[in-house]
Amino acid sequence: MKIAIVTGASSGMGREFIMQIADRFSGIEEIWAIARRKERLEALSPLIPVKVRSFAIDLTDKSRLKDLEDLLMKEKPEVKWLINSAGYGKIGEVGTVNLQDEMGMVDLNCRALCAVTHMVLPYMSKNSRIIQFSSSASFLPQPGFAIYAATKSFVLSYSRALNEELKQKGIYVTAICPGPVRTEFFDIAETTGEIPLYKRIVMADPKKVVRLGLRDSMMGRPVSVYGTTMKAFRLLCKTVPHTVIFRLMKRLMKAV
Ligand SMILES: NC(=O)c1ccc[n+]([C@@H]2O[C@H](COP(=O)([O-])OP(=O)(O)OC[C@H]3O[C@@H](n4cnc5c(N)ncnc54)[C@H](OP(=O)(O)O)[C@@H]3O)[C@@H](O)[C@H]2O)c1
User: Fold this and answer.
1) What is the pLDDT of residue 113?
2) How far is 184 from 182, CA to CA, in rounded Å?
């Protein structure tokens, strides 16, 4: 049975991936949707023509991860798509966000993403795709969002290396690196601090970010960056010393 597995499926870009995969890839027989909010996952079924199986799992809970591993072992599906979208960020300087949230970002954004990838890989074969959610925050250390940005740098590095490892098997890994996207992400991120105004100005539409992510993944591209502003930001971070960019950003924050 050919399936897609999507984490972070209850909202934002994970949910959007489910919609677009169901719409565009007729060979997918089931989509396994993973997140904590069961009712949100169950609400997906009537909306799409593909069978959705809901798994209300906290991915930072090791025993629940084991349940997922056991299920994979029992059902031995052919996983054509793995989308690791579950993730969160909390704005605030290091030490001002509570310890549970600081560690939680590492646990979910990095540890759980690696664990799910490890568990699913044996069930993937030639022409399968893995999409990992990094962020444009991975391009530059982010004072005021330091741990989140560091987790996303981890994801970018991990995904690019994994892509090189898996290429010869015909499995392609794409790290999606969006700038700010209009989802529930900021409802959570802003419980501990506010995002700078300039980020609000460049907010992207999740549908467009996901559409490009799917296209880049199909093309075998290791990194997907949506929008001219974020592409320019990536280039800036590659070519200009980061200390100079830090100074520029401080000025920008003061100006807006
Ligand atoms: N929005 C942005 O501006 C932006 C920019 C760059 C990168 N990203 C990244 O894109 C990915 C998707 O974010 P989004 O914008 O779509 O945000 P979102 O709407 O808040 O979605 C986050 C998803 O993660 C799930 N999740 C959170 N904690 C979880 C846990 N412990 N176990 C299982 N699932 C959990 C949430 O579901 P439950 O609450 O139901 O568990 C939700 O489905 C994230 O990795 C984020 O870091 C976002």
Assistant:
1) 98
2) 7
Query: Counting atoms of ligand 1 from 1, which one is nearest the CA of 204?
Result: 3
Residue with the nearest Cα to atom 9 of ligand 1? 133
- Structure token pair of residue 176: 């999606």
Q: Three-state SS for 170?
A: coil
Q: Is the CB of 69 under 6 A from ligand 1?
A: no
DSSP 203: P
Q: Is the CB of 11 under 6 A from ligand 1?
A: yes
pLDDT tens-digit profile of 83-129?
999 999 999 999 999 999 999 999 999 999 999 999 999 999 999 99
213 Cβ below 6 A of ligand 1: no
Convert the pLDDT of each residue in 48-62 to its tens digit. 999 999 999 999 999
CA 76 vs CA 101, 114, 170, 254: distances in Å? 34, 19, 19, 55
Tell me which residue of 214, 209, 206, 211 sits closest to 226, measured CA to CA: 209
Residues 74-79: contacts with CB under 8 Å, at least 24 apart? 75/1, 76/123, 77/1, 77/2, 77/3, 77/30, 77/123, 78/1, 78/2, 78/3, 78/123, 78/124, 78/125, 79/3, 79/4, 79/5, 79/120, 79/123, 79/124, 79/128
- Whether pLDDT at 255 is above 70: no
Across residues 38-45, what is the average pLDDT?
97
CA torsion sign, 151 to 156 to 157 to 158? positive
pLDDT at position 220? 97
